[in-house]
Amino acid sequence: MSRSFTAPKGTFDLIPPESATFLRVRDAFAAGPKLAGYGYVETPIFEDTALIHRGVGESTDIVTKETYTFTDRGGRSLTLRPEATASVVRAALEHGLHRGQLPVKLWYSGSFFRYERPQSGRYRHFSQVGAEALGATDASLDAELVWLAAEAYRRLGLGGCRLLLNSLGDPQCRPAYRQRLQEFLRGLDLDDDTRGRVDINPLRVLDDKRAEVRKQLHGAPLLADHLCAECQEHYDEVRALLADLGVSYVDDPRLVRGLDYYTRTTFEFVHDGLGAQSAVGGGGRYDGLSSDIGGPSLPSVGWSLGVDRTVLAMRAEGIAVDDAPRCAVFVVPLGDDAHRRMVPVLATLRTAGVSSDMVYGGRGLKGAMKAADRSGARYAVIVGERDLRGDVAQLKDLASGEQVAVPLADLVDNLQEKLT
RNA sequence: GUGGGUGUAGCUCAGCUGGUAGAGCACCUGGUUGUGGUCCAGGGGGUCGUGGGUUCGAGCCCCAUCACUCACCCCA
Fold this sequence. Notes:
Shape: elongated
Structural class: alpha+beta
Mean pLDDT: 91
Strand content: 15-25%
Strand order of the largest sheet: 1-5-6-11-10-9-7-8
Low-confidence stretches: none
CATH topology of the largest domain: BirA Bifunctional Protein, domain 2
CATH architecture of the largest domain: 2-Layer Sandwich
Protein backbone atom coordinates (compact mmCIF):
# COMPACT_ATOMS: atom_id res chain seq x y z
CA MET A 1 0.00 0.00 0.00
CA SER A 2 1.64 3.22 -1.08
CA ARG A 3 0.04 6.38 0.14
CA SER A 4 2.01 8.93 -1.75
CA PHE A 5 -0.96 11.22 -2.34
CA THR A 6 -4.31 11.72 -0.73
CA ALA A 7 -7.12 14.15 -1.44
CA PRO A 8 -6.34 17.53 0.16
CA LYS A 9 -7.67 18.13 3.64
CA GLY A 10 -11.35 18.86 3.69
CA THR A 11 -11.98 17.44 0.22
CA PHE A 12 -13.28 14.07 -0.87
CA ASP A 13 -13.58 12.03 -4.03
CA LEU A 14 -16.92 11.04 -5.47
CA ILE A 15 -16.68 7.44 -6.57
CA PRO A 16 -19.20 4.78 -7.54
CA PRO A 17 -21.54 3.65 -6.24
CA GLU A 18 -22.05 6.66 -3.94
CA SER A 19 -21.45 9.17 -6.71
CA ALA A 20 -24.79 8.18 -8.25
CA THR A 21 -26.60 9.85 -5.39
CA PHE A 22 -24.74 13.11 -5.97
CA LEU A 23 -25.72 13.11 -9.62
CA ARG A 24 -29.31 12.47 -8.68
CA VAL A 25 -29.32 15.39 -6.26
CA ARG A 26 -27.77 17.78 -8.78
CA ASP A 27 -30.33 16.79 -11.37
CA ALA A 28 -33.19 17.22 -8.93
CA PHE A 29 -32.01 20.71 -7.93
CA ALA A 30 -31.59 21.81 -11.54
CA ALA A 31 -34.88 20.38 -12.76
CA GLY A 32 -37.05 23.08 -11.18
CA PRO A 33 -35.22 26.15 -12.47
CA LYS A 34 -35.12 24.62 -15.96
CA LEU A 35 -38.89 24.27 -15.89
CA ALA A 36 -39.33 27.82 -14.62
CA GLY A 37 -37.47 29.76 -17.28
CA TYR A 38 -34.06 29.98 -15.67
CA GLY A 39 -31.08 29.92 -18.05
CA TYR A 40 -27.82 28.17 -17.28
CA VAL A 41 -24.91 30.37 -16.24
CA GLU A 42 -21.33 29.34 -15.59
CA THR A 43 -18.80 31.73 -14.14
CA PRO A 44 -15.13 31.27 -13.31
CA ILE A 45 -14.19 29.32 -10.24
CA PHE A 46 -11.97 32.21 -9.12
CA GLU A 47 -12.73 35.91 -9.13
CA ASP A 48 -11.06 39.20 -8.39
CA THR A 49 -10.56 39.16 -4.62
CA ALA A 50 -12.16 42.59 -4.31
CA LEU A 51 -15.39 41.30 -5.85
CA ILE A 52 -15.64 38.49 -3.30
CA HIS A 53 -14.88 40.86 -0.44
CA ARG A 54 -17.40 43.46 -1.45
CA GLY A 55 -19.99 40.94 -2.53
CA VAL A 56 -19.97 38.65 0.47
CA GLY A 57 -19.15 41.40 2.94
CA GLU A 58 -15.92 42.45 4.63
CA SER A 59 -17.23 41.63 8.09
CA THR A 60 -18.25 38.06 7.37
CA ASP A 61 -16.27 35.11 8.64
CA ILE A 62 -16.12 33.90 5.06
CA VAL A 63 -14.02 36.88 4.04
CA THR A 64 -12.04 37.34 7.23
CA LYS A 65 -10.84 33.77 7.64
CA GLU A 66 -12.23 31.34 5.10
CA THR A 67 -11.10 32.42 1.65
CA TYR A 68 -8.58 30.73 -0.58
CA THR A 69 -6.73 33.74 -1.94
CA PHE A 70 -3.66 33.71 -4.16
CA THR A 71 -1.68 36.01 -6.38
CA ASP A 72 -1.31 34.98 -10.00
CA ARG A 73 1.78 35.46 -12.14
CA GLY A 74 0.47 38.81 -13.27
CA GLY A 75 0.30 40.09 -9.72
CA ARG A 76 -3.50 39.97 -9.52
CA SER A 77 -5.16 38.91 -6.30
CA LEU A 78 -7.67 36.17 -7.00
CA THR A 79 -9.94 34.19 -4.70
CA LEU A 80 -11.59 30.82 -5.14
CA ARG A 81 -15.30 31.52 -4.95
CA PRO A 82 -16.91 30.78 -1.58
CA GLU A 83 -20.38 31.21 -3.10
CA ALA A 84 -21.80 32.22 -6.45
CA THR A 85 -24.20 35.10 -6.08
CA ALA A 86 -21.58 37.85 -6.35
CA SER A 87 -20.17 36.18 -9.47
CA VAL A 88 -23.55 35.77 -11.10
CA VAL A 89 -24.46 39.40 -10.51
CA ARG A 90 -21.05 40.48 -11.80
CA ALA A 91 -21.52 38.41 -14.95
CA ALA A 92 -25.02 39.77 -15.52
CA LEU A 93 -23.78 43.35 -15.17
CA GLU A 94 -20.68 42.74 -17.29
CA HIS A 95 -22.75 41.42 -20.18
CA GLY A 96 -25.59 43.86 -19.79
CA LEU A 97 -28.19 41.19 -19.14
CA HIS A 98 -29.98 43.63 -16.85
CA ARG A 99 -30.58 45.99 -19.78
CA GLY A 100 -33.02 43.58 -21.33
CA GLN A 101 -36.24 42.22 -19.96
CA LEU A 102 -36.35 41.80 -16.22
CA PRO A 103 -36.09 39.67 -14.20
CA VAL A 104 -33.04 37.87 -15.50
CA LYS A 105 -33.38 34.29 -14.30
CA LEU A 106 -30.24 32.18 -14.04
CA TRP A 107 -29.21 28.86 -12.48
CA TYR A 108 -25.83 27.31 -11.87
CA SER A 109 -24.15 24.21 -10.53
CA GLY A 110 -20.59 23.94 -9.36
CA SER A 111 -17.81 23.81 -6.82
CA PHE A 112 -17.15 26.26 -4.01
CA PHE A 113 -14.32 26.68 -1.55
CA ARG A 114 -13.99 27.79 2.03
CA TYR A 115 -10.95 27.31 4.21
CA GLU A 116 -12.39 25.85 7.41
CA ARG A 117 -11.71 23.01 9.78
CA PRO A 118 -13.61 20.18 8.15
CA GLN A 119 -16.26 18.19 9.94
CA SER A 120 -19.40 16.31 9.03
CA GLY A 121 -21.24 18.33 6.38
CA ARG A 122 -18.56 20.99 6.19
CA TYR A 123 -15.81 20.69 3.63
CA ARG A 124 -13.23 22.95 2.06
CA HIS A 125 -14.50 22.01 -1.35
CA PHE A 126 -18.22 21.61 -1.68
CA SER A 127 -20.89 21.60 -4.32
CA GLN A 128 -23.98 23.72 -4.72
CA VAL A 129 -26.74 24.25 -7.22
CA GLY A 130 -28.22 27.72 -7.22
CA ALA A 131 -30.83 29.91 -8.85
CA GLU A 132 -31.06 33.68 -9.00
CA ALA A 133 -33.74 36.07 -10.28
CA LEU A 134 -32.26 39.51 -10.90
CA GLY A 135 -34.02 42.81 -11.27
CA ALA A 136 -37.44 42.58 -9.64
CA THR A 137 -38.89 43.13 -6.19
CA ASP A 138 -42.00 41.08 -6.95
CA ALA A 139 -42.76 38.90 -3.94
CA SER A 140 -43.95 36.15 -6.23
CA LEU A 141 -40.32 35.63 -7.28
CA ASP A 142 -39.36 35.04 -3.68
CA ALA A 143 -42.21 32.57 -3.38
CA GLU A 144 -41.40 30.92 -6.69
CA LEU A 145 -37.81 30.26 -5.64
CA VAL A 146 -38.77 28.91 -2.25
CA TRP A 147 -41.31 26.64 -3.86
CA LEU A 148 -38.77 25.37 -6.40
CA ALA A 149 -36.38 24.41 -3.63
CA ALA A 150 -39.08 22.85 -1.47
CA GLU A 151 -40.29 20.89 -4.48
CA ALA A 152 -36.77 19.60 -5.17
CA TYR A 153 -36.38 18.30 -1.63
CA ARG A 154 -39.83 16.77 -1.77
CA ARG A 155 -39.07 14.98 -5.02
CA LEU A 156 -35.87 13.58 -3.62
CA GLY A 157 -38.02 12.03 -0.94
CA LEU A 158 -36.59 14.03 1.93
CA GLY A 159 -39.20 14.05 4.66
CA GLY A 160 -37.20 15.69 7.44
CA CYS A 161 -36.60 19.02 5.75
CA ARG A 162 -37.96 22.10 7.48
CA LEU A 163 -38.17 25.59 6.03
CA LEU A 164 -37.30 28.59 8.19
CA LEU A 165 -38.38 32.02 7.03
CA ASN A 166 -37.52 35.53 8.11
CA SER A 167 -37.27 39.09 6.88
CA LEU A 168 -34.10 41.07 7.44
CA GLY A 169 -35.61 44.43 6.53
CA ASP A 170 -33.95 46.98 4.29
CA PRO A 171 -31.85 50.16 4.59
CA GLN A 172 -34.96 52.01 5.73
CA CYS A 173 -35.68 49.96 8.83
CA ARG A 174 -32.62 47.88 9.61
CA PRO A 175 -30.21 50.60 10.88
CA ALA A 176 -32.58 51.74 13.61
CA TYR A 177 -33.23 48.16 14.64
CA ARG A 178 -29.55 47.35 14.53
CA GLN A 179 -28.88 50.13 16.99
CA ARG A 180 -31.57 48.91 19.37
CA LEU A 181 -30.18 45.40 19.17
CA GLN A 182 -26.67 46.63 19.88
CA GLU A 183 -27.88 48.45 22.95
CA PHE A 184 -29.53 45.28 24.18
CA LEU A 185 -26.53 43.04 23.42
CA ARG A 186 -24.07 45.37 25.12
CA GLY A 187 -25.92 44.79 28.35
CA LEU A 188 -25.23 41.03 28.22
CA ASP A 189 -22.41 38.95 29.60
CA LEU A 190 -20.54 37.91 26.45
CA ASP A 191 -17.02 36.81 25.53
CA ASP A 192 -14.65 39.10 23.62
CA ASP A 193 -15.26 37.57 20.19
CA THR A 194 -18.97 37.97 20.53
CA ARG A 195 -18.59 41.54 21.80
CA GLY A 196 -16.64 42.28 18.68
CA ARG A 197 -19.42 40.80 16.62
CA VAL A 198 -21.92 43.04 18.35
CA ASP A 199 -20.07 46.03 16.90
CA ILE A 200 -19.62 44.65 13.41
CA ASN A 201 -22.61 42.46 12.70
CA PRO A 202 -24.96 42.31 15.68
CA LEU A 203 -27.69 40.38 13.88
CA ARG A 204 -25.51 37.30 13.68
CA VAL A 205 -25.29 37.15 17.46
CA LEU A 206 -28.96 36.17 17.39
CA ASP A 207 -27.92 33.04 15.55
CA ASP A 208 -25.43 31.90 18.22
CA LYS A 209 -25.98 28.28 19.13
CA ARG A 210 -24.28 28.24 22.52
CA ALA A 211 -26.66 27.67 25.41
CA GLU A 212 -25.13 30.35 27.63
CA VAL A 213 -25.64 32.91 24.88
CA ARG A 214 -29.10 31.72 23.87
CA LYS A 215 -30.31 31.97 27.43
CA GLN A 216 -29.52 35.67 27.49
CA LEU A 217 -31.16 36.38 24.16
CA HIS A 218 -34.69 35.76 25.36
CA GLY A 219 -35.79 39.36 25.59
CA ALA A 220 -33.85 40.51 22.54
CA PRO A 221 -35.62 42.92 20.20
CA LEU A 222 -36.56 41.17 16.97
CA LEU A 223 -36.48 42.71 13.53
CA ALA A 224 -39.88 41.24 12.82
CA ASP A 225 -41.28 43.83 15.23
CA HIS A 226 -39.39 46.70 13.63
CA LEU A 227 -39.94 46.25 9.92
CA CYS A 228 -40.93 49.32 7.96
CA ALA A 229 -44.30 49.28 6.23
CA GLU A 230 -42.89 48.33 2.83
CA CYS A 231 -40.84 45.44 4.19
CA GLN A 232 -43.75 44.21 6.27
CA GLU A 233 -46.04 44.29 3.27
CA HIS A 234 -43.51 42.41 1.15
CA TYR A 235 -43.00 39.77 3.82
CA ASP A 236 -46.75 39.33 4.29
CA GLU A 237 -47.12 38.89 0.56
CA VAL A 238 -44.40 36.24 0.40
CA ARG A 239 -46.02 34.33 3.23
CA ALA A 240 -49.46 34.53 1.67
CA LEU A 241 -48.10 33.23 -1.63
CA LEU A 242 -46.29 30.37 0.09
CA ALA A 243 -49.53 29.43 1.77
CA ASP A 244 -51.27 29.43 -1.60
CA LEU A 245 -48.50 27.22 -2.98
CA GLY A 246 -48.91 24.77 -0.13
CA VAL A 247 -45.39 25.33 1.15
CA SER A 248 -45.19 24.95 4.89
CA TYR A 249 -42.68 27.03 6.78
CA VAL A 250 -41.81 28.25 10.24
CA ASP A 251 -41.32 31.93 10.98
CA ASP A 252 -37.91 32.20 12.59
CA PRO A 253 -37.21 35.78 13.64
CA ARG A 254 -33.70 34.73 14.70
CA LEU A 255 -32.73 33.43 11.30
CA VAL A 256 -29.71 35.39 10.10
CA ARG A 257 -27.51 34.10 7.34
CA GLY A 258 -23.77 34.40 7.08
CA LEU A 259 -23.64 36.80 4.17
CA ASP A 260 -23.94 40.54 4.51
CA TYR A 261 -25.90 41.17 1.36
CA TYR A 262 -29.27 39.79 2.42
CA THR A 263 -32.27 42.09 2.71
CA ARG A 264 -35.93 41.34 3.32
CA THR A 265 -36.81 37.70 2.63
CA THR A 266 -34.36 35.19 4.06
CA PHE A 267 -34.87 31.45 4.28
CA GLU A 268 -33.08 28.29 5.15
CA PHE A 269 -33.91 24.63 4.69
CA VAL A 270 -32.69 22.66 7.67
CA HIS A 271 -32.34 18.97 8.41
CA ASP A 272 -31.29 17.11 11.55
CA GLY A 273 -29.27 14.37 9.91
CA LEU A 274 -26.06 16.30 9.21
CA GLY A 275 -24.29 16.13 12.53
CA ALA A 276 -23.72 19.55 14.01
CA GLN A 277 -24.62 21.31 10.79
CA SER A 278 -28.25 21.92 9.97
CA ALA A 279 -28.66 23.94 6.78
CA VAL A 280 -29.02 21.97 3.56
CA GLY A 281 -29.85 25.03 1.52
CA GLY A 282 -30.76 28.64 1.86
CA GLY A 283 -31.14 31.96 0.23
CA GLY A 284 -32.91 35.21 0.22
CA ARG A 285 -33.29 38.62 -1.27
CA TYR A 286 -30.27 40.81 -1.89
CA ASP A 287 -31.60 44.10 -3.18
CA GLY A 288 -28.39 46.00 -2.49
CA LEU A 289 -25.72 43.64 -3.82
CA SER A 290 -25.58 45.00 -7.35
CA SER A 291 -24.94 48.56 -6.19
CA ASP A 292 -22.50 47.27 -3.56
CA ILE A 293 -20.29 45.98 -6.33
CA GLY A 294 -20.59 49.10 -8.45
CA GLY A 295 -23.64 48.33 -10.55
CA PRO A 296 -27.07 49.90 -10.79
CA SER A 297 -29.82 49.10 -8.36
CA LEU A 298 -30.91 45.59 -9.17
CA PRO A 299 -33.18 44.08 -6.53
CA SER A 300 -32.82 40.32 -6.68
CA VAL A 301 -33.53 37.07 -4.92
CA GLY A 302 -31.97 33.61 -5.07
CA TRP A 303 -30.92 30.45 -3.31
CA SER A 304 -28.23 27.89 -3.31
CA LEU A 305 -28.65 24.33 -2.20
CA GLY A 306 -25.81 22.22 -0.83
CA VAL A 307 -25.36 19.01 -2.79
CA ASP A 308 -23.09 17.31 -0.25
CA ARG A 309 -25.27 18.20 2.68
CA THR A 310 -28.39 17.04 0.92
CA VAL A 311 -26.74 13.70 0.25
CA LEU A 312 -25.93 13.44 3.96
CA ALA A 313 -29.54 14.17 4.78
CA MET A 314 -30.68 11.48 2.34
CA ARG A 315 -28.29 8.99 3.91
CA ALA A 316 -29.66 9.87 7.33
CA GLU A 317 -33.14 9.09 6.03
CA GLY A 318 -31.99 5.93 4.28
CA ILE A 319 -33.02 7.17 0.85
CA ALA A 320 -29.64 7.48 -0.85
CA VAL A 321 -29.66 5.93 -4.33
CA ASP A 322 -26.12 4.60 -4.51
CA ASP A 323 -25.78 2.54 -7.63
CA ALA A 324 -23.02 1.08 -9.74
CA PRO A 325 -23.07 1.62 -13.49
CA ARG A 326 -25.28 -0.91 -15.18
CA CYS A 327 -25.63 -2.07 -18.76
CA ALA A 328 -28.44 -3.99 -20.37
CA VAL A 329 -26.19 -6.27 -22.39
CA PHE A 330 -22.86 -7.92 -21.63
CA VAL A 331 -20.84 -9.44 -24.45
CA VAL A 332 -18.76 -12.55 -23.78
CA PRO A 333 -16.53 -13.50 -26.71
CA LEU A 334 -14.53 -16.71 -26.53
CA GLY A 335 -11.12 -16.52 -28.09
CA ASP A 336 -9.30 -13.82 -30.04
CA ASP A 337 -11.27 -14.14 -33.28
CA ALA A 338 -14.58 -13.77 -31.52
CA HIS A 339 -13.29 -10.86 -29.48
CA ARG A 340 -12.14 -9.14 -32.65
CA ARG A 341 -15.45 -9.75 -34.33
CA MET A 342 -17.52 -8.46 -31.42
CA VAL A 343 -15.83 -5.08 -31.03
CA PRO A 344 -17.79 -3.52 -33.94
CA VAL A 345 -20.95 -5.34 -32.87
CA LEU A 346 -20.63 -3.71 -29.47
CA ALA A 347 -20.29 -0.33 -31.18
CA THR A 348 -23.43 -1.02 -33.22
CA LEU A 349 -25.35 -1.89 -30.07
CA ARG A 350 -24.31 1.34 -28.45
CA THR A 351 -25.16 3.36 -31.55
CA ALA A 352 -28.60 1.79 -31.42
CA GLY A 353 -28.91 3.04 -27.85
CA VAL A 354 -28.49 -0.31 -26.15
CA SER A 355 -26.23 0.11 -23.12
CA SER A 356 -23.64 -2.62 -23.40
CA ASP A 357 -20.31 -3.72 -22.07
CA MET A 358 -18.02 -6.67 -22.65
CA VAL A 359 -15.35 -8.68 -20.95
CA TYR A 360 -11.81 -7.45 -21.43
CA GLY A 361 -8.41 -8.93 -20.90
CA GLY A 362 -8.85 -12.49 -22.06
CA ARG A 363 -10.45 -14.05 -19.02
CA GLY A 364 -11.72 -17.59 -19.13
CA LEU A 365 -15.35 -18.33 -19.83
CA LYS A 366 -16.18 -18.81 -16.19
CA GLY A 367 -14.60 -15.52 -15.27
CA ALA A 368 -16.32 -13.81 -18.18
CA MET A 369 -19.72 -15.13 -17.15
CA LYS A 370 -19.00 -13.99 -13.63
CA ALA A 371 -18.26 -10.52 -14.96
CA ALA A 372 -21.49 -10.63 -16.96
CA ASP A 373 -23.39 -11.58 -13.85
CA ARG A 374 -21.89 -8.82 -11.77
CA SER A 375 -22.43 -6.21 -14.42
CA GLY A 376 -26.13 -6.45 -13.66
CA ALA A 377 -26.88 -6.94 -17.36
CA ARG A 378 -30.15 -8.57 -18.35
CA TYR A 379 -28.65 -10.39 -21.32
CA ALA A 380 -25.32 -11.97 -22.07
CA VAL A 381 -24.23 -12.37 -25.68
CA ILE A 382 -21.88 -15.35 -25.87
CA VAL A 383 -19.92 -15.91 -29.05
CA GLY A 384 -17.34 -18.66 -29.59
CA GLU A 385 -15.67 -20.25 -32.61
CA ARG A 386 -18.57 -22.65 -33.09
CA ASP A 387 -21.03 -19.75 -33.22
CA LEU A 388 -18.88 -17.74 -35.58
CA ARG A 389 -18.89 -20.62 -38.05
CA GLY A 390 -22.68 -20.50 -38.06
CA ASP A 391 -22.84 -16.67 -37.90
CA VAL A 392 -24.86 -16.79 -34.71
CA ALA A 393 -24.54 -15.59 -31.13
CA GLN A 394 -25.88 -17.25 -28.02
CA LEU A 395 -28.29 -14.84 -26.35
CA LYS A 396 -28.71 -15.69 -22.70
CA ASP A 397 -31.26 -14.25 -20.34
CA LEU A 398 -29.22 -13.92 -17.17
CA ALA A 399 -32.20 -13.97 -14.85
CA SER A 400 -33.93 -17.07 -16.20
CA GLY A 401 -30.87 -18.80 -17.62
CA GLU A 402 -32.65 -19.40 -20.92
CA GLN A 403 -30.38 -19.30 -23.92
CA VAL A 404 -31.18 -19.16 -27.64
CA ALA A 405 -29.06 -18.89 -30.76
CA VAL A 406 -29.66 -15.69 -32.74
CA PRO A 407 -28.20 -14.87 -36.17
CA LEU A 408 -25.51 -12.22 -35.71
CA ALA A 409 -27.23 -10.09 -38.35
CA ASP A 410 -30.39 -9.93 -36.23
CA LEU A 411 -28.68 -9.46 -32.88
CA VAL A 412 -29.07 -5.71 -32.52
CA ASP A 413 -32.71 -5.63 -33.62
CA ASN A 414 -33.48 -8.59 -31.45
CA LEU A 415 -31.99 -7.02 -28.37
CA GLN A 416 -33.58 -3.65 -29.01
CA GLU A 417 -36.95 -5.33 -29.20
CA LYS A 418 -36.42 -7.40 -26.08
CA LEU A 419 -35.35 -4.36 -24.10
CA THR A 420 -38.25 -2.06 -24.91
C1' G B 1 -7.32 28.79 16.17
C1' U B 2 -9.23 25.23 20.51
C1' G B 3 -10.77 20.35 22.43
C1' G B 4 -12.14 14.88 22.11
C1' G B 5 -11.77 10.18 19.35
C1' U B 6 -9.37 6.89 15.85
C1' G B 7 -5.05 4.98 12.79
C1' U B 8 -3.79 -3.23 11.78
C1' A B 9 -5.26 -6.51 4.26
C1' G B 10 -9.03 -3.07 -1.12
C1' C B 11 -13.51 -2.57 2.76
C1' U B 12 -15.50 -3.52 7.98
C1' C B 13 -12.91 -4.84 12.08
C1' A B 14 -10.61 -8.62 15.95
C1' G B 15 -5.81 -9.15 18.24
C1' C B 16 -5.95 -11.18 26.16
C1' U B 17 -1.56 -9.18 31.75
C1' G B 18 4.07 -7.34 25.83
C1' G B 19 6.08 -13.49 23.07
C1' U B 20 7.50 -12.38 15.53
C1' A B 21 -0.40 -11.01 12.20
C1' G B 22 -6.05 -12.91 12.04
C1' A B 23 -11.52 -13.09 10.53
C1' G B 24 -15.62 -11.76 7.43
C1' C B 25 -16.55 -9.44 2.86
C1' A B 26 -14.23 -8.22 -1.85
C1' C B 27 -10.68 -9.85 -5.68
C1' C B 28 -8.10 -13.93 -8.59
C1' U B 29 -7.57 -19.31 -9.88
C1' G B 30 -9.43 -24.19 -9.94
C1' G B 31 -13.43 -28.00 -9.15
C1' U B 32 -16.83 -27.53 -14.77
C1' U B 33 -10.65 -27.31 -21.46
C1' G B 34 -18.48 -23.53 -24.28
C1' U B 35 -21.68 -20.97 -19.43
C1' G B 36 -22.84 -16.74 -14.14
C1' G B 37 -25.53 -16.64 -9.21
C1' U B 38 -25.12 -21.36 -4.60
C1' C B 39 -21.31 -24.66 -2.88
C1' C B 40 -16.17 -26.56 -2.18
C1' A B 41 -10.75 -26.03 -2.48
C1' G B 42 -6.70 -22.90 -3.15
C1' G B 43 -4.25 -18.05 -3.92
C1' G B 44 -2.54 -12.97 -3.95
C1' G B 45 -2.16 -9.25 -0.91
C1' G B 46 0.25 -5.88 5.72
C1' U B 47 7.61 -2.15 6.61
C1' C B 48 0.39 -2.91 12.28
C1' G B 49 0.24 5.80 10.07
C1' U B 50 5.54 7.64 10.75
C1' G B 51 10.00 8.51 13.83
C1' G B 52 12.32 7.68 18.33
C1' G B 53 12.45 5.32 23.33
C1' U B 54 11.81 1.23 27.20
C1' U B 55 12.53 -4.23 26.83
C1' C B 56 15.83 -10.36 25.67
C1' G B 57 11.36 -9.29 22.78
C1' A B 58 6.52 -3.91 21.00
C1' G B 59 0.48 -4.08 16.92
C1' C B 60 0.13 -3.70 22.48
C1' C B 61 3.91 0.43 27.09
C1' C B 62 6.25 5.81 26.84
C1' C B 63 7.41 10.40 23.92
C1' A B 64 7.01 13.05 19.51
C1' U B 65 4.89 13.72 14.84
C1' C B 66 1.46 13.16 10.76
C1' A B 67 -3.22 11.84 8.92
C1' C B 68 -8.28 10.99 9.40
C1' U B 69 -12.62 12.01 12.17
C1' C B 70 -16.12 14.48 15.46
C1' A B 71 -17.17 18.91 17.99
C1' C B 72 -16.48 24.44 19.34
C1' C B 73 -16.36 29.44 16.68
C1' C B 74 -18.85 29.87 12.03
C1' C B 75 -21.42 28.05 7.86
C1' A B 76 -23.89 25.11 2.32
